[in-house]
C-alpha cells in the first residue's frame, strides 16, 4: 500500500518559528493556512499510515488549534488503545516526541492498577517492562504519591510503582533529516513497538471501572 506521508516540509519549521513566544491574533491568522497545510495535515497522513501498518492504531485524533499559544507551537495527536491508555505524539521545533500513557484515570482505575502491581505475577511483569522501557531511553513519570497507599507494602521492589496514579513513558525521537521523509513512519512504529508491552499490560489490567 502506498504511503500518504511524505515527510514534514522544511517550511513547516519556518511556520512554527513565526509562532514562537506569544504570537498575536494577527500572526496566528496569517499563519493558519500554512500551519494547516505544512504542519497539521502531515501529522494526519503520518497517523493514517501508522494505522494502515497496525489496525490497533486506527482510533486516533489530531488536535486542531486552541486558544493557548502552546497549541499553535506544538502539533499533538493521540492514538487510543484502551480506556485512558494512549500513545501520544507531538511535532514541534524540537522534532518528534512519543509517549505511552495511562492518565486522567476513570474512577476505580487507580485501585485496579494498584491491585495488579501488588499481585505477584502481573506486578513482576510490569516491573520488568518498566525497567526495559527505561533502558531504551524513555523517561518514566506520572502522578506519583509521596508514599505508598494505605494497605499496601511500604517497602519492596514495586513500592515506587504502587505510588503511581498515572504512568507515562516518553522520549524525543529527535529533529533530524528523516522528519522530512517517509522514514518518519518507520521511526514512529519502532518507538511504538518499544512501548507495546507497557501499553498492552495497561489495557489488560486497568480497564474502565465506570
- Distance from N terminus to C terminus (CA atoms, Å) equals 39 Å
Write the element-wise H/E pattern from the N-terminal end onward: HHEHEEEHHEHEH
Uncertain regions spanning at least 5 consecutive residues: none
Q: Which structural category do the helix and sheet elements fall into?
A: alpha+beta
Question: Helicity range of the residues?
Answer: 40-55%
Q: Could you tell me the radius of gyration in angstroms? A: 19 Å
Range of strand content: 15-25%
- Which sheet architecture does the biggest sheet show? 6 strands, antiparallel
Principal-axis shape equals elongated
Number of strands: 6
Strand order of the largest sheet: 1-2-3-4-6-5
Number of helices: 7
Annotation keywords:
single chain, 210 residues
Amino acid at each position: 500500500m502506498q504511503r500518504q506521508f511524505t515527510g514534514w516540509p522544511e517550511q513547516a519549521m519556518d511556520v512554527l518559528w513565526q509562532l514562537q513566544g506569544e504570537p498575536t491574533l494577527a500572526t496566528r491568522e496569517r499563519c493558519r493556512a500554512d500551519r494547516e497545510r505544512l504542519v497539521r495535515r502531515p501529522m494526519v497522513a503520518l497517523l493514517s499510515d501508522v494505522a494502515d501498518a497496525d489496525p490497533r492504531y486506527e482510533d486516533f485524533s489530531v488536535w486542531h488549534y486552541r486558544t493557548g499559544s502552546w497549541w499553535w507551537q506544538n502539533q499533538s495527536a493521540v492514538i487510543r488503545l484502551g480506556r485512558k491508555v494512549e500513545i501520544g505524539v507531538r511535532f514541534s521545533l524540537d522534532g518528534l516526541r512519543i509517549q505511552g500513557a495511562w492518565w486522567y484515570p476513570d474512577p476505580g482505575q487507580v485501585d485496579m492498577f494498584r491491585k495488579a502491581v501488588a499481585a505477584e505475577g502481573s506486578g513482576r511483569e510490569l516491573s520488568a517492562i518498566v525497567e526495559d522501557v527505561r533502558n531504551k531511553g524513555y523517561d518514566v513519570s506520572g502522578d506519583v504519591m509521596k508514599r505508598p497507599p494505605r494497605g499496601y507494602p511500604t517497602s519492596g521492589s514495586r513500592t515506587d510503582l504502587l505510588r503511581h496514579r498515572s504512568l507515562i513513558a516518553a522520549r524525543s525521537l529527535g529533529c533530524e533529516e528523516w522528519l522530512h521523509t517517509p522514514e518518519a513512519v518507520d521511526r514512529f512504529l519502532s518507538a511504538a513497538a518499544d512501548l507495546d508491552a507497557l501499553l498492552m499490560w495497561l489495557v489488560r489490567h486497568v480497564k474502565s471501572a465506570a
